[in-house]
Amino acid sequence: MSTEQILGVCQWLDRRGWVANHDGNVSMRLPGQRFLVTPTAFRKGDIGAADLLIIDIDGTVLSGRHRVFSEWKVHRAVYEERPEMSAVLHCHAPSACAFAVSHRTLPIDFMPEAIVSLGPSIAHVAVNALSDARLPKDVAVAARTANAALLLGHGPLTWGRDLTMAMARMELVEHLATISLRAMTLGGPIALQSHEIEALTEKHRRAGLAAPSLGL
Fold first, then answer.
1. How far is 173 from 184, CA to CA, in rounded Å?
2. Are 108 and 120 in contact (CB under 8 A)?
3. For the segment 81-98, what is each residue's pLDDT rounded down to a tens digit?
4. Spatial distance between the Cα atoms of 161 and 152, rounded to a whole number of angstroms
């Protein structure tokens, strides 16, 4: 079942055009501090069951014939900071990436449904193109404060209690980015009032979706 789920996500990303070449990576938690992950240097649409890897928390391959992707430490940071999370997803969804490569804040405070689902904000994490030494630590902070992150100069990262939640969050991030880009031609999206954001954030909290900084 886990294999079918992760392959389904790979096909989903490929069909939507949210990955190209070897872009993106997907992981999910298995029992015993093991993780099922996509291999490096593969088009997501070409990955088959025999290509998937089982690794430990340190990224050591326990089963599989390929190599783990270089960004595993980023996924691990989320799993260690948020032990209730069982899936992490990264891709290059175009609208979200437009914000990432422009180093622009991707707002979430203009749509009530988004705040209830994701929380009051998306984390924004700086990425050094030549060294990722700080990136896992910064992603851990992001996981503590939010349910999705925009890696600046790179792309979106989401996590969830299962793959379906991680996918839904990625879908929402890209949807918000697309709406924001279109709204810019009309002057930009208008933020909700602060008391509305607070009330919607409380709904998010009561639904049990909040990151630790908001009272998980």
1. 17
2. yes
3. 999 999 999 999 999 999
4. 24
Spell out the residues 6+ positions from residue 6 whose beta carbon is closer than 8 angstroms to its own.
Answer: 26, 28, 36, 38, 52, 163
3-state secondary structure of 157: strand
Which CA distances in Å does 40 have to 17, 147, 151, 182?
A: 18, 25, 19, 34
d(CA 2, CA 45): 17
Query: CATH number, domain at 122?
Result: 3.40.225.10
Domain membership of residue 75 as a residue range? 2-214
Kind of pairing between the strands at 155-160 and 61-63: unpaired
Angle between helix axes 72-81 and 135-145 (nearest 10 degrees) is 40
Rounded distance between C-alpha atoms, residue 88 and residue 157, angstroms: 7
Going by C-alpha positions, the residue among 155, 139, 166, 143 that lies closest to residue 106 is: 155
What is the total count of domains within the chain? 1
Q: What is the pTM of this model?
A: 0.96
